[in-house]
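Quick one: co-fold with 2-aminohexanedioic acid.
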Amino acid sequence: MKHNLIGGAWRPGAALPNINPSDTGDIIGDYACASPEDVTMAIEAAQAAFPAWAMLDPQSRADMLERIAGEILARREELAGLLAREEGKVLREAMGEVTRAGNIFRFFAGECLRQSGELLPSVRPGVQVEITREPLGVVTLITPWNFPMAIPAWKIAPALAFGNCVVFKPAELVPGCAWELADIIRRAGVPAGVFNLVLGKGAQLSDALMGPGVHAVSFTGSAGVGQTILRKAGERGIKVQLEMGGKNGLVVLDDADLDLAVQVALDGSFFSTGQRCTASSRLIVQEGIHDRFIARLSEAMRALTVGDARDPATTIGPVVDQRQLDVDLNYIAIAQAEGARLIVGGARLTREHNGFYLAPTLFADTVSPMRINQEEVFGPVASVIRVRDYDEALEICNDVDVGLCAGICTQSLKHAAHFRRHADVGMVMVNLPTAGVDYHVPFGGRKKSSFGPREQGRYAAEFFTTVKTAYVRAG
Ligand code: UN1
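Sure, here it is.
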């Protein structure tokens, strides 16, 4: 059994089995569930470790993060195999994700040495004002199952780089990647208590994870859980960063390169089995290209190979578990009941082994107010909305209460430039899939998608540090 890491020691707990979604008979291993008392111990260990870690020289921190990056990259094939096995992401994408995680640690190793402040003259003679950033203290990081290496990396790396101590609670479906990451971090020389791993179900641990001694919480996951965290954080004076859902629109205009638009939609809507908050779940298509786009996209979807995530021939892996599969099938039924026309897919598939396989699904003849166009499914399901012109496309693209990403396929500089400015989202893609972002630039959305400062790149400092303004009279 793999244990929790608390105060530098491995601590056992009740067994939590880790099941392969491509083959439910394959149990990856047993992982120890942390109790709320374990979480409290982890917070106390982090508090105790904080003063020394906060004052450590940046070179030592950079060296540790660099060692973490090096080991992740050196073991990328093995770690990608584990990721594919426990989450169901196909091997090619799993390799990409593990590489991304390694690169994130490398980026933040560099950031340790690039911290700077500002020196300003005061409005009062003889006084100087110095603005610096300091670590927050103990931060709780709660991560989802859909990027079990990359999302933990982009929260843990900046948290440590800027001098915070971490209590990391990964989604219960992916303890394997989290445990490997914890072991790598421990062996890289990060002192006991600076980084702690607590495994288990969020519902049982969430209150303890925001207990006394916690200064900040960064969460990526569902909107429902995010709202609960936000409320508690407000009551308890905890700084909060939330990354929640998306209902991202991809606009395809009549002047788009059809081959490119089909590839962009295929990738954005269905790769990673559509289980990305950045997925393009609404395809907003102008009437002149509408029928050709649907015909070509359907053809491309039928050529996808749904199967075992670890088979190199597979292009679409299984849904992560039975609960998510039920959610997906329920939305497919809702869409049909609302009058959407099923073009491709729509049903569960059987394969050699018992797994949660779902055919990539496309609906047409949908309108914006339908639930299928307003609520996040988080599966390989996309719907087409037909529009007259660019203005209507933009209006529909913004007609949701979330605003993570939006994309446009067009050859018109005028429309691309207008869209870039007027799409009410945090990230805009021109002739690119809405999903699949760089690791060194800010990530985040607007409206109900995100709360608090941006993640990733240099912008990560906004959340993981607090600003101090010092006034100094010399002499
Ligand atoms: C990506 O599309 O490259 O949970 C990243 C998610 C996002 C990450 C998406 N926070 O799907």
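If it helps, The chain has a mean pLDDT of 98.
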